[in-house]
Design goal:
The protein has helices at about 40-50, 90-105, 115-120, 170-175, 180, 185, and strands spanning about 55, 65, 70, 80-85, 120-125, 130, 140, 165-170. With about 190 residues, the protein is α+β, with helices and mostly antiparallel strands. It is globular and about 45 Å long. The mean pLDDT is about 95.
Length: about 190
C-alpha cells in the first residue's frame, strides 16, 4: 500500500474535473445472496486504496448470512476490509484520514462527496459506522449494549478495530459513478 496517509486537503472530490458535475444521491443496496464475481468497481477501489492509503487488503469475498434475507456485502464482492489497526498510531491516522476524505464536504457544498462519487455506501472502523445518508460516524451496534454503554472484551475484528470495512453500492461496484467515469478513476 501507499506509505503516506491521504490528507483531506487533497480530496479528489475537489478536483476541477469533478467539481460542478452532477453528484450521486445517497443510496444503499443490500446483498440478498452469495455470489463470488468480483465487480470492476471493487477491483478499482482496491487499486485506488493500494495507491493512496497505507494498509493492505484483508479480503473482499466471503459468504456471510446475517439474517433470513440479509447477507454481508462481502457475500457479493461489494465490501473490502482494509487492514489498519487503531492501536498503531500511523494506521489509526491513515484510517481517520481515509474516512474524513470520503465523508468530507466538497467545495460545491456536497457532504460525503467522494463517498457518493465512488459509490461508497458504508464504512465501519473502531466501533463507529457510517451508512449512506447519515451525517458523520455513529456508534457501531456490535460494540454497544442497548443502554448505550460500550461492551467489554470485544473481538478486535468484529469491532473493526484492526481494519476499515468499506462497502460499495451497485453503481459503485459497476464502476459507473462519477468518480470512476472521470479521468481520476478511469486509471484504476
Amino acid at each position: 500500500g501507499a506509505s503516506a496517509s491521504m490528507r483531506p486537503s487533497k480530496n479528489p472530490a475537489n478536483d476541477p474535473r469533478l467539481l460542478g458535475k452532477p453528484i450521486e444521491d445517497f443510496r444503499y443496496d443490500y446483498a440478498t445472496h452469495c455470489r463470488d464475481k468480483m465487480p470492476p468497481g471493487m477491483k478499482a477501489l482496491q487499486k485506488w486504496l493500494e495507491s493512496n492509503v497505507r494498509g493492505e487488503s484483508w479480503g473482499i469475498y466471503r459468504c456471510e448470512k446475517l439474517g433470513p434475507h440479509n447477507y454481508s456485502l462481502h457475500s457479493v464482492d461489494r465490501a473490502i476490509d482494509w487492514h489498519l489497526d487503531r492501536n498503531v498510531p500511523a494506521d489509526k491516522r491513515a484510517a481517520m484520514d481515509l474516512i474524513h476524505t470520503l465523508l468530507a464536504t466538497d467545495k460545491d457544498g456536497n457532504y460525503a462527496a467522494l463517498a457518493r462519487r465512488m459509490g461508497v455506501q458504508g464504512l465501519i472502523f473502531n466501533c463507529r459506522d457510517w451508512w449512506s445518508g447519515m451525517h458523520g460516524m455513529g456508534p457501531y451496534s456490535y460494540c454497544y449494549k442497548p443502554n448505550g454503554h460500550r461492551r467489554h472484551g470485544l473481538d478486535p475484528t468484529q469491532a473493526h478495530e484492526n481494519h476499515v470495512h468499506i462497502e460499495l453500492n451497485v453503481p459503485g461496484a459497476k464502476k459507473t459513478t462519477s468518480f470512476w467515469r472521470s479521468p481520476l478513476g478511469r486509471r484504476y
